[in-house]
Amino acid sequence: MLQRLDKILSNSGRLTRSQARDALKAGRVAVYGETVRDGAAKFDPETAPVTLDGAPVAGGTVVLLLNKPAGYVTATRDSRFPTVMDLLPSVYRRRVVPVGRLDKDTRGLLILTDDGDFAHRMLAPKSHVWKLYEAELDGPVGPEERERFREGISIGDRICLPAELYLPEGKPSSLVRVRIREGKFHQVKRMFGAVGREVTALKRLR
Questions:
Q1: What is the per-residue pLDDT for 60?
Q2: Distance CA 86, CA 93 (A)
C-alpha cells in the first residue's frame, strides 16, 4: 500500500512528523537514490529504498513481542510509574503502541505494533483470540473450580465466556494455567476471586 513519504519517515521512529518535513526540505531524503523533497510523494514502504542521510530507513509494519516484567504499566506514558515504552529501544517508542494491556504487577507476553488493523483484529471481541496465563494462588483449586470455569463463571457484573483451567496432573494445585478468550478488566484475578482464591502472581504465556 502506498504511503506519503513524510509518513514513512515518521513511522520509522527516527523522526517526528515535523523533523521529517525539515529533513525533506533540507534534501536529506532519497528514494531509489534520487533526492525527494516532497513529503506528499507516495511510495510502498515495504519495497521502496528510502534513505536518510544515506542510511536506510526501515519500512513496513512493526510487531514486537515483549516479555513484560512486573512494575511497568501498559501505557505510552504515565505520570507515576514506568511504562512498557521505557523497555523499548528508542527507535520504536514513538512508533508502536501496546495491543491490549497487562496489569502493572502482571508479567509476560505483550504485543506492541504500529499496525492498527492487526491490533483491531487481536482485540475485537468477535475474534475470540485465546490467551494463556500461569497463575500462582493463595491456595489450591481443583476439579470443581475447573468445571465452573468451563461453564462460564460470574464475576459480578457479567458472566465470562467458557474458559479452560489446567491442573497439573489433574490434581488440586495452587500453581495452575488458565486459558481465556476475553480480556476484561482484571478478568483472571476476578475469576479466581469468584471461587474464593487470590492471585498472588500472574504471567501471560501465550
A1: 63
A2: 8
Residue 96 · residue 76 · CB < 8 Å: no
Q: In 3-state terms, the chain is what percent helix, strand and coil (to 5)? A: 25, 30, 45
Residues 205, 109 contacting (CB under 8 angstroms): yes
Residue 108 Rama label (left phi>0; alpha psi -120 to 50; beta): left
- Cβ proximity of 51 and 29 under 8 Å: yes
Q: Check residue 199 and give its pLDDT.
A: 98
CA gyration radius, the chain: 22
Contacts of 24 (CB under 8 A, 6+ apart): 5, 6, 9, 36, 37, 38, 39
DSSP strand pairing (34-35 vs 29-31):
antiparallel
What pLDDT is attached to residue 94?
76
* Regions in the chain scoring below 50 on pLDDT: none
Sign of CA dihedral 115, 119, 120, 122: positive
At residue 62, the pLDDT reads 81
Torsion of the alpha carbons at 83, 84, 85 and 91, rounded to the nearest 10: 160
pTM, to two decimals: 0.74
Please give the Cα distance from 52 to 69 (Å, whole number).
35
Active-site residue identified among 103, 105, 117, 138? 103
Catalytic-residue membership of 103: yes
